[in-house]
């Protein structure tokens, strides 16, 4: 008497593994894109927060700080100065001369976003300011704020 075949053949096992691998890859890439967009939104919110800190500093000192040095800005103007959520580096920041008076009354601040698609809603309201030639003493050289950099300037 012959027993019926109750196991799986090799083709069925390979197909099952391939389907599971494909589904895992799809889920992983979707999750990774969602995380990148979430970090980009955090970067934009951080830039807007730093902008408000700079405005408080300006209202008090009548100029902008040369750097985003926490010793200058905390705790008087901010609890902390946020950093990029992925790299933990400072955001791009430069203070530039304004007009013929050569006073340091203009700032440029930005963050490089992970979602580099130009149709991103985050790029619709940024400055896209190119690097300015006249950075103030003690400030970082200005940076190119064209996309994929989200930047604001006053």
Offer a few descriptive terms.
154 residues, alpha+beta, 36% helix, 14% strand
Report on the structure:
With 154 residues, this protein is α+β, with helices and mostly antiparallel strands. It has one domain. 36% of the residues lie in helices and 14% in strands. The chain has 2 helices and 3 strands; from the N terminus they run ααβββ. The protein has a 3-stranded antiparallel beta sheet, with helices on one face. Strand 1 (92-98) and strand 2 (103-112) form a beta hairpin. The longest helix is centred in the first third of the chain and has 52 residues, at 10-61. It starts with 9 loop residues before the first helix and ends with a strand.
Counted by DSSP, the helix tally is 2
Number of strands: 3
Q: Which structural class fits the helix and strand makeup?
A: alpha+beta
Helix content: 25-40%
Distance between the termini: 89 Å
Strand order of the largest sheet: 1-2-3
Mean pLDDT: 86
Task: Please describe the biggest sheet, giving its number of strands, its sense, and whether it closes into a barrel.
Answer: 3 strands, antiparallel
Given as residue ranges, the uncertain stretches (5+ residues, pLDDT < 50) are none
What is the CA-atom radius of gyration, in angstroms? 25 Å
H-E string = HHEEE
Q: What spatial form do the alpha-carbon principal axes imply?
A: elongated
**What is the number of independent domains?**
1
